[in-house]
Design a protein that fits this description.
The protein is of the alpha+beta class. The chain has one domain. The protein has helices at 4-12, 34-48, 57-64, 82-91, and strands spanning 19-24, 102-107, 113-117, 120-124. Strands 1-2 form a two-stranded antiparallel ribbon. It has a two-stranded antiparallel ribbon with strand order 3-4. A hairpin with a 2-residue loop joins strand 3 (113-117) and strand 4 (120-124). Helix 2 (34-48) packs across helix 4. It is elongated.
């Protein structure tokens, strides 16, 4: 079994700067308001020079609809996408979807995963656990 020190050296190796990640901190589910979804996509289009979601008909239909439903933009963008982070920081609670309480957390890792229970989320990093590697036959202490 490898300790967190070995994993830390692999996943952090001194080259990782803090990364902001958006998560939902209430029961319900991650989602952004329509106004936030539009702002996020404007930023993505400016960054990329085109709309990467223009081929996704269901997303275009959602944005152009008259209702105020929840937008699950995380289906299309990574939770650390700068556009998502900026809009949540700029809009505060107004960025929340109807069942969300969005927060930004900083991590110091090259990778993460989001764990969820009934919509309430937390960030899990590789070094949060001890891992068993199949090539390790040492005696457990």
């Amino acid at each position: 079994m490898y300790t967190n020190e070995i994993l830390d050296s692999y996943y952090m190796d001194g080259k990782v700067s803090p990364t902001k990640v958006a998560i939902n901190k209430c029961y319900g589910g991650f989602g952004v308001s329509k106004k936030a979804a539009v702002k996020i996509m404007d930023k993505v289009i400016k960054r990329m020079g085109y709309n990467p979601l223009s081929q996704l008909k269901e997303f275009e239909d959602d944005i152009n609809s008259e209702d105020n439903k929840v937008y699950f933009i995380d289906c299309y963008l990574q939770r650390h996408d700068p556009a998502l982070i900026e809009v949540i920081e700029e809009m505060g609670e107004a960025a929340n979807g109807s069942c969300a309480k969005l927060e930004i957390e900083e991590i110091n890792s090259k990778c993460y995963k989001i764990e969820e229970y009934d919509g309430y989320e937390s960030i899990k990093l590789p070094m949060d656990d001890e891992w068993n590697f199949v090539n390790d036959l040492s005696i457990k202490k």
